[in-house]
Specification:
heterotrimer; A alpha/beta (about 400); B mainly alpha (about 325); C mainly alpha (about 300); A: about 400 residues; alpha/beta; Rossmann fold; 5-stranded parallel β-sheet; 4-stranded parallel β-sheet; 16 helices; 15 strands; B: about 325 residues; mainly alpha; ABC transporter involved in vitamin B12 uptake, BtuC; two-stranded antiparallel ribbon; 15 helices; 2 strands
């Protein structure tokens, strides 16, 4: 899609609403007011990997972009959706209807993301999703108003699933958190495993959230599968990894595959327990100078904690959105989305990338192995880079997603 | 349980004149309430129809709960089950069968009633804290059922994007404001029904059972039938609130059947005033507003909510409306 | 080798043993709840938060003061017990003349406050706490690998549970306690300081919860939400055992751990709910619980 065509379309969208054009012309000289709402978990399971850190990342994006100098008056607000779709939907509606919010960023927890996705579309605003995992956001439930930035279940499965089979882990047993996200992750990974010539020998559905996984781990152990796939997240993952170490499962030769592990989880586990774990992320603070500089500044304001990929994604998405708003000099969602999809993304954290028509942000995804305690040079030095998956390999091909926007 | 309810509702007025005065006062309050509901959408900030609908649905839920606790002396710790199941039924029938709102609300309410009958007939055999625990256990099973049947409930995602079909197949509910007036009308009817029940001979017997069950038995009342009746009525109204919520908020989710929802409705009733007609309405408004306007505070919301619990229990047991009732020396 | 419903017996033994380990936590926690309910007539909804506090105190002792696991096993329950004493003196004392419901609501509110504060301060991903060096590794039992620490959990909780039972049922102090439960006014008249007894009992119950928290710290992550859902389950355990019954709480705690362990093999999705099903059945058949006296 060429840059010029996109711009013309955005102009036409503006012209269609005469009132809007008149207003935006009057505002051409004054700063454009932009309000971005960071909606995520600020008190529960995902508060550390999203939470206030994501709001900080959004503020840093505003600062780094120099929004004020470029004619934007940006305000960042934030709220806690408690991982409940009803709470999230309620806040999103209120922000759009009453508070003049133009875009909502982050939104972890797929169930909440779906609710906000739909409201955003209904109100014609923008969702810059970073935290949610479900690949359905750019598949069956895709929306012209949503960008899915950081990762999805498909990419996680490709990364960890593909790599483990390649390394000889061809029989799998899944520990699956018994809810939509866990099922999706199991399904996507099982598909990758089978396609790569592996075999799934069993799976157990664990009540969510759970604390004791020893019984399920024992079932996994007696299945004699080479790889135990952890299709869960947050506290469930932490507990299952911890208990696998305790029951000597990894010493017994079985490998653990954490299908969704964040750097904060590794931090909570400690290297002693987490060492050797294979995992997939699209950002790590120690990748290059750009990520290190950003993470250093971030950590200084977060009590030493490095950013997670979700928080980095909020930064990248906010930056790109601000570029769009500055270029179109408007708050109009259609125009800004057109600009965002029509122009390359470029930020120090994810490098250069694009946003596909279905809303999928394309960037490379990395396969990491958690270091042994002896290899780590200091706090937060946790990952070894094993492989880099180019975006086209990591993310689902646009035609395979069943996104109605693309079929049309 | 007697001393729970007695705090909030001053005993029934002795003289006919006082009773008539009270009835007149209550009529005035009802008229005032109706007038307020009529103009609320035009007031800025709080007049946001979406928010108001949520408050009204929870207010009806709390009133239904209070009917059982405040007037029947029965503490249920599982009222989320009726509210939540009804909300699922109503959302499902509206979305997948394309039923009109009044039909899906009716079906939802009926499901609350049936569930109430089933659970009620088990639970009323026990008293006090055991009664509370049975209702909790039964409600947990409903939660489990909801979690395990994603085909019906949508699992974690819930049933999202519930359509607002035309009322009676004719009147469109496109705007939030028109839906709000529907909700407000049903809410008023629900509260009026509860008021009638409380002041009927049936309600008098209920209060007698609450205050002294043994005596009511010795007077020849079939206590269990009364308890079951109020249980079913309360579950039905909770179901009505739940089904309306599904249509108004366009979402039915696991939150509605989780035990913390059962705890929340206790909090609303406690804050507003147990055993008062209008207390739960105020309580629901306070709690929902708090959750709404303090959402930006993150984890501090839990702390604030906890503090309200503590303050209410320690020094404010009559609740807001209970205290007002004491000042003006009238039951509210 | 015969198989039971498709499960080899070795696997079944393993699962039963794991059930017993989980049951140890249920037993200590429900014991604390039962002791508190027996004397104070209060359903201590803060129990889950106090269990969490125990784990956090152990973590703070290690990371802030440098005090390790073994001293923490004693210190953390004592510190938590002191906070319990303060809670009883400041809040609970005012509620004794009221219905059970108010105690439940107040402690529910306190649990929200405590959990919220810890979440604000420590975040919610959880913090690591290592298994003490003496208890690392494990034993190969033939049918399963039993980590030493898990074995220790069962032993420690059995000892604590039985000691508590002994104190309450067989000693003079326990006799005072039981007397105060039956008839506080009369006990007071015999010159026993009942309010002090009540305060200390609450502190002791909280200490038990914190003890379970320290035991849990190395195997579950130290997390502000670790007690939030557990409390409902433990609550159910106490009800099944019979409110206020000491032996009932202990036996039911271990027993339900076993039942839950079996459910995890045959119908894992239901393992979080099976306790509630049992509770409903028990209450309908035997309303005062398995070991309770009819009120």
């Amino acid at each position: 899609m060429s840059y010029f065509r996109m711009n013309r379309r955005s102009l036409m969208a503006g012209a269609a609403a005469t009132a809007f054009t008149a207003r935006s012309m009057a505002q051409a000289q004054q700063p454009v007011n932009i309000k971005i709402g960071v909606l995520n978990d600020r008190s529960g399971l995902y508060a550390d990997l999203t939470g206030e850190g994501s709001a900080l990342a959004a503020r840093m994006a505003v600062e780094d972009f120099g929004a004020a100098a470029k004619g934007l008056n940006v305000q960042i607000v934030s709220a806690d959706h408690q991982n409940k779709p009803d709470v999230g939907a309620n806040i999103a509606r209120q922000w759009y209807d009453n508070d003049g919010v133009d875009a909502i960023a982050d939104v972890p927890t797929s169930s909440v993301a779906f609710a906000v996705n739909q409201i955003t579309r209904e109100k014609n605003k923008i969702m810059l999703n970073s935290g949610a995992a479900s690949s359905d956001l750019t598949g069956a439930q895709c929306s012209p108003n949503t960008v899915h930035w950081t990762y999805d279940t498909y990419a996680l499965a490709q990364g960890t699933g593909g790599a483990m089979v390649k390394a000889g882990g061809d029989t799998w047993f899944f520990l699956t958190a018994d809810y939509a996200f866990g099922h999706a992750l199991e399904r996507d990974t099982a598909a990758v495993v089978t396609k790569a010539g592996g075999r799934v020998v069993g799976a157990v559905r664990t009540p969510f959230p759970g604390t004791d996984f020893s019984s399920f781990l024992l079932q996994a152990q007696s299945s004699r599968a080479k790889v135990i796939g952890l299709a869960n997240a947050g506290g469930d993952t932490i507990n299952s990894i911890k208990q696998a170490a305790e029951f000597g499962i990894t010493q017994g030769g079985q490998k653990l595959a954490g299908l969704l592990v964040f750097v904060t989880d590794v931090h909570a586990l400690g290297l002693q327990t987490a060492q050797g774990l294979i995992l997939t992320e699209s950002f790590y603070w120690d990748l290059n100078d750009g990520t290190r500089a950003f993470s250093e500044r971030f950590a200084r304001q977060r009590g030493g904690n490095k950013p997670t990929m979700v928080q980095a994604g909020v930064y990248g998405a906010t930056l790109h959105y601000l570029k769009a708003a500055a270029a179109t000099k408007s708050r109009d969602a259609t125009a800004n989305m057109a600009w965002m999809k029509g122009n390359q993304t470029d930020d120090p954290l994810f490098g250069k990338g694009t946003i596909r028509a279905d809303g999928r942000k394309m960037h490379p995804v990395y396969l990491f192995e958690v270091k042994k305690p002896s290899e780590s040079k200091g706090p937060w030095d946790y990952y070894k880079l094993i492989a880099t998956l180019p975006a086209e390999e990591a993310f689902r091909p646009i035609a395979a997603g069943n996104c109605p926007l693309v079929r049309a | 349980m007697a001393d729970i309810a007695a705090t909030g509702s001053p005993s029934i007025s002795a003289s006919p004149k006082a009773a008539a005065d009270n009835a007149a006062l209550h009529r005035m309050i009802f008229i005032g309430l109706a007038a307020t509901l009529l103009v609320l959408p035009f007031i800025p900030v709080i007049g946001y129809p979406f928010f108001l609908m949520k408050v009204l649905c929870f207010a009806l839920f709390a009133c239904a709960f209070n009917l059982m606790l405040g007037y029947g002396g029965l503490l249920s710790f599982g009222h989320a089950a009726y509210f939540g199941l009804a909300s699922y039924v109503s959302a499902y029938t509206a979305k997948h069968w394309g039923l009109t709102p009044e039909l899906s609300i009716l079906l939802g309410t009926a499901s609350g009633a049936v569930l109430g009958l089933a659970f009620g007939s088990l639970a009323i055999r026990r008293q006090g804290i055991y009664f509370a625990m049975i209702t909790l256990a039964l409600a947990q099973m409903v939660f489990f059922f909801s979690l395990q049947t994603p085909r019906f409930t949508g699992g974690e995602d819930g049933i999202q994007a519930v359509p607002r079909n035309n009322l009676f197949g004719l009147i469109p509910l496109g705007s939030d404001t028109s839906t709000y007036y529907l909700v407000a009308a049903v809410f008023l009817a629900g509260v009026a029904l509860i008021y009638r029940v409380i002041h009927s001979p049936f309600g008098q017997v209920l209060k007698a059972i609450r205050d002294n069950e043994a005596r009511a038995v010795s007077l020849g009342y079939r206590v269990n039938q009364y308890k079951l009746a109020v249980f079913v009525l309360s579950a039905t109204l909770a179901g009505l609130a739940g089904s309306m919520k599904a249509i108004a908020v366009q979402l039915a989710s696991l939150t509605d059947v989780h035990w913390s929802m059962s705890g929340e409705v206790v909090l609303m009733t406690l804050v507003g005033g147990m055993g008062t007609v209008f207390g739960p309405i105020i309580g629901a408004a306070v709690i929902i507003s708090m959750q709404n306007f303090l959402a930006g505070l993150g984890a501090w919301v839990t702390v604030v909510q906890g503090a309200i619990f503590v303050v209410c229990v320690l020094i404010f047991r009559e609740g807001i409306v209970g205290v007002i009732g004491k000042w003006i020396k009238r039951p509210l | 080798m015969f198989e039971l419903l498709g499960i080899p017996p070795q696997a079944l033994f393993g699962q039963l043993l794991l059930g017993l380990i989980n049951g140890s936590f249920y037993a200590i926690l429900s014991l604390g709840l039962a002791v508190i309910f027996g004397l104070l007539n209060i359903i201590n909804f803060t129990h889950g938060a106090q269990y969490m506090m125990g784990a956090f105190i152990a973590w703070m002792l290690l990371n802030w003061v440098g005090i390790g696991y073994w001293p923490a096993l004693v210190l953390a329950p004592v510190i938590a017990g002191v906070t319990g004493v303060i809670i009883e003196r400041v809040f609970l004392k005012r509620l004794y003349h009221l219905d059970h419901l108010y105690g439940l609501l107040l402690t529910f509110g306190l649990a929200l406050i405590i959990q919220g504060l810890f979440r604000n301060y420590f975040g919610s991903s959880g913090l690591p706490y290592q298994i003490p060096a003496e208890l690392r590794g494990g034993q190969n039992l033939g049918f399963m690998f039993l980590p030493n620490y898990r074995g220790w959990v069962v032993v420690a909780s059995l000892v604590v549970c039985l000691a508590t039972w002994f104190i309450i049922e067989k000693t003079k102090l326990g006799a005072y306690l039981r007397a105060a439960t039956e008839n506080p006014t009369l006990t007071q008249a015999f010159g026993i300081n009942v309010p002090l007894l009540i305060t200390l009992t609450y502190g002791f119950g909280v200490g038990l919860a914190a003890f379970a928290g320290v035991l849990a710290a190395p195997i579950y992550s130290v997390n502000p939400n670790m007690g939030a859902d557990l409390i409902i389950v433990v609550f159910a355990v106490v009800v099944i055992g019979g409110m206020g019954s000491i032996m009932g709480a202990i036996v039911t705690g271990f027993g339900l751990g076993l039942v839950e362990g079996l459910t995890k093999v045959f119908y894992p999705e239901a393992s979080a709910t099976v306790i509630f099903i049992i509770m409903a059945i028990v209450l309908l058949v035997k309303p005062a619980g398995l070991f309770g006296r009819t009120a």
